[in-house]
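<purpose> Linking amino acid order to shape
<body> The protein record starts here
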Amino acid sequence: MSPKINQVVNPARLEFVLEQRKKYPMTWDILTPLPSWIKKEGKIDIHRNVFFSEQGFGFQWSGPEYLRIPHRGNIILGPKVEIFSGTNIVRPTLNDTRIGEGTKIDYNCHIAHNVNIGKHCLIIAGTILGGSVTIGDNCYLGIGCMIKNKVKIGNNVTIGMGAVVLNDVPDNYVMVGNPAKLLRNG
């Protein structure tokens, strides 16, 4: 299987980046206070103004009214996770929300309760993940895409800019459009 587009090594660019990293070494900082229900597994980088919402938007109709569902789970941040400003991550109900090793989350994303994100994913600005979404490993979610609650995204999937994903997506698919449709497999 060929590598995903965001994982192809560009030797010239890599050399430039490594030179820059020598001049400006990577620091792993937590610039937003972490609530007690955030668990970290190794070094992470959390920019200022990342929001960890204690109560999610979860309700159950009881007959006469909506009852709020308590959110009491933990958020687990794997090693080398980076989260940029303006992103909101909601505390899960009872299970854990997990963000896998090496995943990078750009500015102004929303990650609802009970979401699981695999390893080495790139989640680009403005992405919205509904509650109980599962994202596999090595996925690329383009600018402003939206994933409906409870949808499962396989491994090595690319979701195009502005795509609206309403159904599960198998491994190695490239999805684009609104509603999202298969562009290619592999």
